[in-house]
Amino acid sequence: MNLALLASVLSLLATVAAQPYDHYDMGWVNGYRQGFNFQCPHGELLVAIRSYFSEKEGSDRLWSFECQPVPENLGEPSDCWWDDINRAGLEWTSTCTRNGLVAGVQSKYFESTLDREWQFYCCYYKRRCPYSCMKTTDVPEYYREEGEMVIPAYGYFIRGAQTTFSGVLRDRQWKYILCRLTDFDCEFENL
Questions:
Q1: Where is the signal peptide (predicted)?
Q2: Is 32 exposed, middle or buried (0-12, 13-18, 19+ CB in 10 A)?
Q3: Nearest to 55 by CA among 148, 173, 145
Q4: pTM score, two decimals?
Q5: Domain limits of the chain?
Q6: What is the CA radius of gyration of the chain?
């Protein structure tokens, strides 16, 4: 084997080994400071969300999402749509309109606020209504930490989120709004 080639390979391996582990192999849907559009396959809903913060990368997060098929008794979604945009740099609460459930997320990064705007992709299942709704604890628990939320029990679905934004730390904490759906058709909208 050529000694120059061996030296170059060893040098490359040493460089890679010396770099800090920065969570680049976790199936992220975005790069830092990049927008993204994630939608679950038809008939599936969001069940897990993960993020990783980096101050040196514009105080931004990498994001990863997981979906799961809905229970058979819900059937196919009757309609899906992009709900209202939630602006960067602000605190907000957003639930899918028309009793919808979250089946996707899109986001755009803004250098001026070092934050993102958010929009949920919502799907509606017949005339089912949410009930037994609750909010998760803060995700992440503290600003600038890695965040992870997995639906805590079968039969709960993500309906929306409430967020707080720290203008000093340039990061956001989330409380996800989780609900069950009735097994029967209902005639009212549960806001």
A1: 1-18
A2: middle
A3: 145
A4: 0.84
A5: 36-181
A6: 20
